[in-house]
Recover the amino acids of this structure.
């Protein structure tokens, strides 16, 4: 019989299980499995790595070895928006460095601490995203590509992101408040 | 399902006929560069307008062999008068046209009109004037910055004029997400020909005679590589397409995978048939999401059409392809490391021999070819080795794609016959240096290549000539630098990259790159000595000789070439404690000349760290403790009031 605790663990790893199953539990698909897990969690939590190792019948050290070898993987939680500043040769000679400084300054992060405390933003430096014709390039969550960036133009991009985030937050809060109000409505005001 | 060469030809004729019904066709570039500039919005708007005008003709041919033919095309609205209407217009997204700088690009067929920097607002004018009335909109054409003249067609733009497009022939001309367009432009005809008319040995013979060499870097003869793999007796063999284009500054393979994925798949099929492999992998960098999506789609479509799977086109050749995504490791471009990564392990290289041709993926004989090498194969099979050899030099046959980037006026992707002098590429095709500055150096071949200066500009770009001057063709990345680049800092930049990417397996690379980086950092920090230069050179040569894999062996190239061609700059750093280009920050302090400053506040506004303060109309000051010496203020100041030194 399963205890309720183990049920909970089971539920927690449901998504991981589905990913492993999709890749037929093959060790050769370890990289793809970790990529999908990271897409789900935004990073690779330690307990998940151990879980994957057990599921694939390989030592945790092997999984950890792969997770730390490739730059794409992160063992630390990443922000909701991952801003990548390309520092390939073309971007480098066209001044990508000042772009990094600008973002760090705007988000209050530094070389060591690359994610904001509220887990909204992460700054990454990537070696080349292959859009050298538009150097210097900055991407947001991979799909939003900004080419021929200058500090002024990037400042606008970052401000827009901050604005988007704030307005989403306030919509959520309003939503919450409305929900609360509805709850109050349902239960009736206790003081009356 | 296409069951024979004949089926393929029938489908080709059908699609060509359907395409012929589109009297005019607009192709909107959907390469990563143009997408970043908003090309997809241009496409949506064009499509919307063309539909609204009732003149849109969709390419809607049912493949008889696959599905029973349904209505020939969902096509034209009744008012437009059917597909024969003179205004029947097609619109599609295409792969990279190469001229990324001028994006979003729109090409209008059949006249080859090229519109540059097109915005969604321009769509209406394009539809009404060009697509319907056939008139050219002059303001959207490319204007030659030197002569000031407009160039009416893509082919007449100086950037394209000297190019010979073999690998990139279809990039920008077809919709990469539609296998039928690829087939209509000759896709899969080479593998069909090979399966029908040639034995694997004959295929190898043709490729050997063509003199095709690996386009990924080292330039090993493709035919010879295949001969080794063919000779090994084994029940299972593999072919791998190396799409792990990790060199910073290179994007040729990305453009080919995005712009013509079927050509890559066909090339891999030819390789597989030649060496006797039944399974193939395409290993793509995860940094190329568009390429991954298009390749996956292409593989699916090829399977649906029976071009991948069992008994392809009625022959006894069976083959299938799996797409594998990398996870960000430069060393995985090295073949043994790539094999390790496909097996789900850390991508670390192993000593050769045994070569992958003997013992590769899962211990079986494996051939690994670069994307561009594979994309050359269909043309070689269809047009013959002599045609291929008519381009290039005797030892380096054919064409090569280069990614032109950096401080050059026209950036983008070019394909030229091998052996073209560097000068022609940079100054004719590339249009020279931007904003009238002086040429200083060109970095070829990424972190494995070298930096060449003014004195090497007449070197022909072929494998041997470039190797002689210490650089290499590499994958073809070419970053041009002007007088504002410090060559010591550039060497340090590359060393930082290779040191970071070194997998740590062998001592020369692991320790050597670290020590070289430390020395270069010391020099750029203004603390270097003359002896450091000798030590740096000695270390570089040791790593070159002793490292295990290609990454380590070539890592010292940027250092060695800059030491050779730009030694005076190193000496200025260690003897005079001066950075001639004004890049090395430790060697300079920024200040504002109070006489010249008018207090316009522009510098204070662009300073990314808020180091500049001052009141409007009063002279400003730079706080040296905050200043990161990024040069942003100097670039903005209209009064030349900011000095460094």
């Amino acid at each position: 019989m399963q205890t309720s605790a183990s049920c909970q663990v089971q539920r927690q790893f449901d998504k991981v299980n589905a990913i492993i199953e999709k890749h037929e539990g093959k060790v050769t698909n370890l990289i793809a499995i970790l990529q999908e897990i990271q897409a789900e969690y935004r990073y690779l939590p330690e307990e998940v790595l151990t879980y994957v190792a057990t599921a694939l019948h390989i030592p945790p050290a092997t999984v950890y070895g792969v997770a730390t070898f490739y730059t794409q993987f992160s063992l630390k939680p990443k922000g909701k928006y991952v801003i990548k500043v390309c520092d390939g040769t073309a971007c480098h000679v066209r001044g990508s460095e000042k772009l990094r400084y600008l973002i760090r300054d705007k988000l209050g992060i530094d070389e060591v601490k690359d994610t904001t405390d509220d887990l909204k933003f992460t700054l990454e430096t990537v070696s080349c995203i292959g859009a050298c014709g538009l150097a210097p390039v900055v991407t947001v969550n991979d799909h939003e590509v900004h080419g021929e960036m200058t500090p002024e133009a990037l400042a606008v991009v970052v401000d827009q992101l901050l604005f988007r985030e704030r307005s989403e937050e306030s919509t959520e809060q309003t939503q919450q408040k409305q929900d609360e109000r509805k709850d109050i409505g349902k239960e009736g005001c206790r003081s009356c | 399902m296409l069951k024979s060469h004949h089926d393929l030809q029938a489908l080709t004729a059908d699609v060509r006929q359907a395409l012929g019904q589109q009297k005019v066709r607009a192709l909107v570039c959907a390469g990563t560069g143009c997408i970043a500039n908003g090309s997809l919005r241009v496409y949506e708007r064009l499509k919307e307008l063309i539909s609204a005008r009732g003149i849109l003709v969709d390419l809607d041919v049912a493949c008889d062999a696959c599905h029973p033919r349904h209505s020939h095309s969902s096509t034209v609205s009744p008012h437009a008068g059917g597909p024969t209407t003179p205004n029947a217009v097609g619109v599609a997204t295409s792969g990279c046209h190469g001229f990324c700088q001028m994006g979003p690009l729109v090409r209008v067929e059949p006249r080859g009109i090229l519109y540059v920097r097109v915005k969604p607002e321009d769509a209406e004018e394009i539809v009404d004037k060009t697509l319907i009335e056939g008139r050219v909109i002059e303001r959207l054409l490319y204007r030659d910055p030197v002569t000031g003249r407009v160039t009416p067609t893509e082919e007449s733009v100086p950037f394209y004029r000297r190019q010979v497009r073999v690998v990139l022939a279809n990039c920008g001309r077809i919709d990469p997400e539609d296998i039928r367009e690829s087939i209509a432009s000759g896709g899969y005809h080479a593998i069909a020909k090979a399966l029908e008319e040639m034995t694997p040995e004959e295929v190898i013979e043709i490729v050997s005679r063509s003199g095709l060499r690996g386009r990924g870097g080292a330039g090993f003869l493709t035919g010879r590589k295949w001969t080794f793999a063919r000779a090994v007796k084994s029940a299972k063999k593999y072919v791998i397409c190396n799409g792990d284009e990790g060199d910073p500054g290179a994007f040729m393979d990305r453009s080919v995978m995005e712009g013509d994925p079927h050509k890559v798949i066909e090339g891999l099929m030819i390789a597989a048939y030649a060496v006797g492999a039944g399974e193939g992998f395409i290993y793509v960098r995860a940094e190329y999401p568009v390429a991954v999506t298009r390749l996956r789609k292409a593989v699916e479509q090829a399977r649906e059409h029976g071009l991948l799977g069992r008994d392809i086109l009625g022959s006894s050749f069976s083959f299938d392809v799996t797409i594998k995504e990398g996870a960000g490791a430069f060393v995985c471009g090295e073949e043994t490391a790539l094999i390790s990564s496909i097996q789900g392990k850390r991508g670390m290289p192993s000593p050769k021999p045994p070569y992958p041709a003997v013992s590769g993926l899962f211990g079986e004989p494996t051939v690994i070819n670069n994307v561009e090498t594979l994309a050359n194969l269909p043309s070689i099979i269809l047009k013959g080795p002599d045609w291929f050899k008519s381009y290039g030099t005797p030892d380096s046959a054919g064409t090569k794609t280069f990614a032109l980037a950096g401080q050059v006026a026209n950036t983008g992707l070019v394909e030229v016959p091998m052996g073209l002098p560097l000068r022609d590429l940079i100054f004719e095709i590339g249009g020279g240096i931007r904003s009238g500055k002086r040429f200083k150096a060109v970095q070829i071949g990424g972190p494995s290549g070298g930096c060449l200066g003014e004195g090497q500009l007449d070197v022909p770009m072929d494998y041997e000539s470039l190797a002689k001057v210490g650089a290499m063709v590499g994958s073809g990345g070419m970053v041009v630098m002007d007088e504002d680049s410090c060559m010591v800092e550039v060497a340090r930049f590359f060393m930082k990259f290779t040191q970071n990417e070194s997998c740590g397996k062998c001592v020369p690379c692991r320790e050597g790159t670290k020590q070289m980086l430390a020395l270069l950092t010391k020099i750029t920090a203004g603390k270097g000595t003359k002896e450091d230069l000798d030590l740096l050179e000695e270390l570089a040569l040791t790593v070159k000789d002793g490292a295990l894999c290609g990454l380590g062996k070539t890592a010292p190239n940027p250092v060695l070439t800059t030491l050779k061609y730009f030694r005076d700059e190193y000496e200025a750093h260690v003897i005079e404690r001066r950075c001639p280009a004004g890049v090395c920050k430790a060697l300079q302090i920024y200040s504002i000349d109070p006489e010249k400053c008018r207090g316009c506040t522009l510098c204070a506004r662009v300073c990314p760290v808020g180091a500049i303060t001052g009141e409007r109309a009063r002279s400003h000051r730079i706080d040296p403790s905050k200043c990161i010496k990024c040069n942003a203020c100097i670039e903005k100041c209209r009064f030349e009031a900011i000095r460094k030194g």
Remarks:
- The radius of gyration of chain A is 21 Å.
- Residues 184-192 of chain A have pLDDT under 50 and may be disordered.
- Residues 146 and 153 of chain A are 9 Å apart (CA to CA).
- Chain A touches chain B through 48 residues (CB under 8 Å).
